[in-house]
What does this fold into?
Amino acid sequence: MCIWFGIFCFPLIAIAAQGVIKVKGYFSEVQAIRQIEKNSNYVFFYDAADLDEVKRKNIDCQGTIEKVLSVVFEGSNVNYLVRGDEVVLKVNKQSVQQKGEKRVVTGVVTDAIDGEPLVGVNIVVKGQKSGTITDLNGRYSISVSGDKAVLVFSYIGYQKREAPVEDLGVVNVTMSGEQQTLNEVVVVGSGVQKKVSVTGAITNVKGDILRMPTSQLSTSFAGKLAGVIATTKTGEPGSGADFYIRGISTFGGRTTPLILLDDVEISVADLNYVPAENIESFSILKDASATAIYGARGANGVMIISTKGGDYNMKTKVNVSAENSFNIMSDFPEFVDGPRYMELYNEADLSRNPNKSKDQLLYSDRRIQLTRDGVNPYVYPNVDWQDVIFKKMTMTQRANINVSGGGTKVKYYMSLNVSHDSGLLNTEKAYSWNNNINIMNYTFQNNISYKLTPTTTIRMNMNAQIRQNKGPNINSADLFKMILTTTPVTFPATYPAQPGDTYIRYGSDYQSSDYLYPNPYAQMMTSYKEQNANTLNTVIKVEQDFGFVTKGLKANIWVNFKNWSSSSYNRSITPYLFRAVGYSEDSPLEYDLERIQEGADYIAQSDIARSSDQTFEFQGNISYNRQFGLHNVGGMLMYRQREYRSDVLLIVIKESQDVSHMITDNVIWLKSTSVITVRNVLPRRSVSVSSRQCL
It folds into this structure.
């Protein structure tokens, strides 16, 4: 049997007789194995990816199976094991990698359309970190090992390319532009545009990038959103971050950006409790050209959040997530103990008054030693207020379940998010409350879209938030300040209870004749506050495609109603304060207690404070967007009205109109904005009119 390669003829022979194997021909490793199996009783077991099917060599040998295999796999790092009629093959991959010969591959990288060389293209060997770039002529050279290396070419604005090296010495590559990226749409003011058409400063990210183990969305902004500065001033549960777009624009007015959730304005507090799982896209409009349509309201930038809405003709998908995070205090200052505090106090006193004797110092050596020995912690206290007020660790839980899907006419997305934050306050239930910080939040999102006709779609987006905040009627920052100003040796947190006591004996002392030292522990334990807030934000949209009139013409109308209400009350009790008297350094175990503040035996409760507001918004716009050859033409006419009612019957009505024309190729913009604001605070009335034109 002969197979012709050009003008050469190679006999392919594999004969097995009486245990003797004969192989003769021009074979690859895989071909040689198949010939042995075909003409003998031997069966081979191997991974086809480990053997070379391309490289061939001339084989001419005869003998036992071991002798033939030693010739077939000579220099290939293939190990074999013969068991009867079975042959097991295994490649020593580590040896292959160590013995791979290095060689230099060169080439030229050019543009797929005009053939021009590309300068600065990144080239790396797949699986390795080192690489090179192309020069001014688009040429490159790189070292590779073996013939299975793959080169990866990447360049900004171009699609990534991978090219196998094999046994080539020159690898020329053409790269195509990333048209898909340029054609992607970006959410802008009251609409979307292609990336290639956007001239304003806009950042757009997906909601998944904001996922962090926190119940406050704003705490995840830092380092995630370009141009957004976010700072967290307190680690108190329930507090978010302060954030600005491109810095603070004013020191006397509002500095936070305009925040729109599904086109509807919301507050920073509402934004904090929007789960990242619900967010489809998050856009930041930063400069004047991007925020012009919002007028003065967008002076500090605009944040546009679009929530998920499901997909048509999609099976129901259920996502469930649950997380538990551990919170500890970091970078907490370390305070000296009581004895060391007294020693440092005496040293400071002597440095100012060097003529003072030891008897004139506030803290005697005997008192310092009694405090260090812990003889009587009520007479000579050594209080670590950090341990008294704060715990070492607490936990935060969050769970989210969302359901999405759709049919031919309906698509939907529903989500329920529950978060629980607990504080680090080291409290106990001494009264009718447990006033450690305890925050529960429930957020429900329901988005439904229905196609009334092939050109008419109606949507309803509803966001409901229920918040419950419990804790002491004093914030953590004030407690921390008390710790900084209260010495560890002035008084203990509490004194032991006496028979018949119906109250707690809190420690204190006179700071002056008519002023007592505040006890941080008493301040934390004797007050309680509960606040409940509810927000319902609903928007109904109707979208009409007038493509049957002219292609690219659309109309959009939506109505929004937002209702917010809050109620709160607090409880408190006046604490009994005592100080130790009648003791001496010679008899430190004997002391009496003097009541220096008469407390209350009953809890006082405030009236329920209520607050609420309602917002009604209406917006309608007609947009036109069409492509003529290489040109894109777009425009929009918008009308907006907003009515806001608060506790003081403040009514604000805003109407804004905007006309926007754009020719993409020549980058020509024409915007016209007028704002009419009417404020009616009974019985007065004021009207202000302002307009602005820009070209």
Observations:
- Residues 1-18, 94-99, 650-695 have pLDDT under 50 and may be disordered.
